[in-house]
Design a protein that fits this description.
Elements lengths: L2 E3 L11 E8 L20 E2 L7 E9 L7 E12 L5 E3 L5 E4 L6 E11 L1 E3 L1 E17 L2 E8 L8 E8 L5 E3 L5 E7 L1 H4 E4 L5 E5 L3 E4 L7 E12 L4 E6 L11 E5 L5 E4 L2 E4 H11 L4 E8 L6 E8 L9 E11 L2 E11 L3 E12 L5 E4 L18 E10 L9 E13 L1 E11 L2 E9 L2 E2 L21 E4 L13 E8 L9 E7 L6 E6 L9 E4 L4 E3 L10 E5 L2 E4 L8 E3 L7 E5 L4 E4 L2 H11 L5 E11 L4 E11 L1
Parallel strand pairs: 3-6, 8-18, 11-16, 12-44, 20-24, 21-24, 27-30, 28-30, 34-36, 42-46, 43-46
Antiparallel strand pairs: 1-15, 2-4, 2-14, 4-8, 5-6, 5-7, 5-10, 9-13, 10-11, 10-12, 14-17, 15-16, 18-19, 18-23, 19-20, 21-22, 23-24, 25-26, 25-29, 26-27, 29-30, 31-32, 31-35, 32-33, 32-34, 35-36, 37-40, 37-45, 38-39, 39-42, 40-41, 43-44, 45-46
Length: 631
């Protein structure tokens, strides 16, 4: 069998999505029946029904870099539970989410209002009955079916996590509270590519934390309610992902003079952008990208898209990476097609985007409205193309699509690349390119990218212009991640313009181990309150045993010594023990180690996934998140 593993392809990346809940106080001292009838099960209380004794809650989701090209599942409900058994339901309606699309951001999915008090557990209900999961096989998108450990197709799954006793969520007047959840795709899924369709064995892992474990850009999507130009804010009815109706609460978005706006295809900044948004009128769809202030929990937008600048809002849109280009035809494979008529479709086939002299081309985040030549769009470029989309034949996940953007526009989004350093000099890097926007480099055809065929981009010697980026942390043979834009089509070399560099010490690392179906009661050679040392001499170690740092993959069994896992010194962290009926979540490493030791007295560990940063000199993984799966 071709097993990818619980952490995805060993050549690749790892996945998780985050649910973040922010609580802003509105007064009051209670709000729930503390003594529900003993004879009946607790009834969920709708979040909006508790009047003045409630606090506002923001719920958001994200996905770290992962093997899944699509992982679309219906989130049916999200329930918070108090120690007395009383339950509050957070979601007003079933929400269809493609977790694989949230690689570099977190998305707000609902703003609820819940009673003040302490909450000790959460249950998320997922419905896999209509799941749309796509993985990559041989550089091509293929369908995958979600199954349980016995191989039975998944339906509705409840994922329950209990917070440790020292870190219950306390909602009260005063400083807003925050709670995040990571549904760790890396720890939750084992992919088998040898079957047709490919199968994904799911063991859901939901990690809880009282802070953001990963600091990412936050996206808020919703319809415009009103604009306060004097305060520099606007109010939005939240509608997550591509939801077209229902109200998921309201949120105030703060802007300033540096906020970049794109309203109905025109770019503005600061007050001019807010005025254009106001002129667009109530009901205009908006998408804001920014950050949540740590102390006040206010949302501050750095970029705002509105009207037809939002994918699928009045105009069809293709989102993805250009895998090849021939003249004025861009080919995007493994794309999301968002149609104004019927919403989002993940396209496993080819999407051919036709551009022309009247196509408006802009780079994301620009503060003015100059148009670039269409030749600015090259192979590897992440794009949002706006025009008219049609399926080739019937609408099908496996079929092809076309998008006519000859009278439309293309937004060039910053693109991430991974590779190994071959040579570094002031202002330039040469890489062994491994992936573009998470897609294996074998998926791309670089013909036509150079000033001559001999100068076409070569992934074995991919040339990156780095301008004034600090290259002191780069060394030959080590992996790096760069964010920027491919050179305009037909003008390479260089092949890529790097705007941001992430070198080896700062790259995300993931460690994954399995111990077969029987598991092990001795996964560690040393188990202390401040450190865990893996027992690589354990004969029960299974097929999964690697440490991935960016594109570099290390076979744990070939290391000269067993890695040590330690917690971060001054950063948020979250740890999880997964069992059959529920999971236990911990904020403190020592509490996690203590509980895990107790559980291993009566149960065996079958899987371990840790994410964080790796120091090769000390052979130490600093784990911001760790998931231990017990038999």
């Amino acid at each position: 069998m071709n097993i990818i593993s619980r952490c995805g392809s060993a050549l690749s990346r790892f996945g998780a999505f985050t649910v973040a809940l922010v609580f802003t106080a509105c007064g009051g001292s209670g709000g729930m029946n503390s003594n529900p009838p003993a004879s009946s099960a607790p009834v969920p209380v709708p979040a909006a029904s508790c009047a003045s004794d409630c606090n506002k809650v923001l719920v958001a989701m994200t996905d770290a870099d992962g093997d899944f090209l699509s992982y679309t599942v219906d989130v049916v409900s999200l329930e918070l539970k108090r120690p007395n058994g009383a339950i509050v339901e957070m979601l007003p309606a079933t929400t269809r989410i493609d977790f694989a699309q949230y690689v570099d951001l977190t998305e707000l999915i609902t703003v609820g209002t819940i009673p003040n008090g302490a909450y000790s557990s959460v249950t998320m209900r997922l419905d896999y009955g209509n799941a749309d999961i796509t993985v990559e096989r041989g550089g091509m998108p293929v369908a995958a079916q979600a199954v349980d450990a016995s191989g039975t197709a998944l339906g509705v799954v409840d994922v329950k996590v209990t917070l440790d006793n020292r870190h219950h969520l306390v909602v009260s007047p005063g400083r807003p509270s925050l709670l995040t959840f990571d549904f760790n795709l890396a720890a939750s899924n084992t992919v088998d590519l040898a079957t047709t369709p490919a199968t994904v064995t799911v063991t859901p892992a939901l990690v809880a934390s009282l802070d953001f474990v990963e600091q990412k850009e936050l996206r808020v999507r919703g319809t415009l309610v009103s604009v306060d130009t004097a305060a520099g804010t606007y109010l939005a009815d939240v509608r997550p992902s591509h939801v077209r109706d229902m109200r998921f609460g309201q949120l105030t978005v703060h802007t300033d003079s540096a906020t970049v706006f794109e309203v109905n295809g025109t770019n503005y900044s600061g007050a001019a952008g807010l005025a254009a948004l106001s002129a667009a009128g109530a009901g205009t769809i908006t998408t804001a990208f920014g950050t949540l202030a740590k102390q006040t929990r206010e949302f501050h937008a750095e970029v705002v898209h509105a009207g037809t600048s939002v994918p699928g809002a009045g105009v069809d849109t293709v989102l993805g990476e250009v895998v090849s280009r021939s003249g004025d035809v861009l080919t995007v494979r493994g794309a999301t097609v968002v149609r104004d008529s019927d919403g989002a479709h993940f396209a496993r086939g080819r999407v051919q985007v036709t551009i022309g002299p009247d196509t408006r081309v802009v780079k994301a985040g620009t503060t003015a409205s100059p148009t670039a030549a269409t030749d600015a769009i090259s192979v590897g470029q992440s794009i949002a193309a706006f025009g008219t989309a049609n399926p080739v034949g019937n609408v099908s996940k496996s079929g092809d699509w076309t998008l006519d953007a000859t009278a439309g526009r293309v937004r060039m989004n910053p693109t991430s690349i991974f590779g190994f350093v071959k040579q570094a000099s002031p202002g330039a890097l040469t890489l062994q390119l491994e992936s573009i926007a998470g897609r294996r480099v074998s998926s791309f055809d670089f013909a036509g990218t150079g000033m001559s065929p001999e100068q076409d981009a070569d992934p074995t010697n991919y040339e990156v212009a780095t301008s004034t980026l600090n290259l002191s942390g780069t060394s030959a043979g080590e992996p790096v991640k760069l964010i920027g834009f491919p050179t305009p089509f037909g003008l390479a070399p260089p092949d890529f313009e790097g705007r941001t560099l992430v070198d080896f010490p700062r790259l995300s690392a993931v460690l994954s181990l399995s111990w077969g179906r029987s598991g092990t009661t001795a996964p560690f050679s040393s188990q202390e309150a401040t450190a865990l040392v893996l027992n690589l001499g354990n004969p029960d170690i299974g097929r999964v045993h690697f440490l991935a740092v960016g594109p570099r993959v290390l076979n744990l069994l070939t290391l000269p010594a067993s890695p040590t896992i330690v917690p971060p010194a001054n950063e948020p962290s979250a740890y999880l023990i997964v069992m059959r009926d529920e999971s236990l979540s911990f904020q403190g490493f020592s509490d996690f180690v203590t509980e895990l030791g107790t559980r291993l007295n009566t149960s065996a560990m079958v899987g371990l996934t840790a994410t964080g940063s790796y120091n090769g000199d000390s052979n130490t993984l600093t784990a911001r998140s760790l998931v231990a799966i017990l038999k």
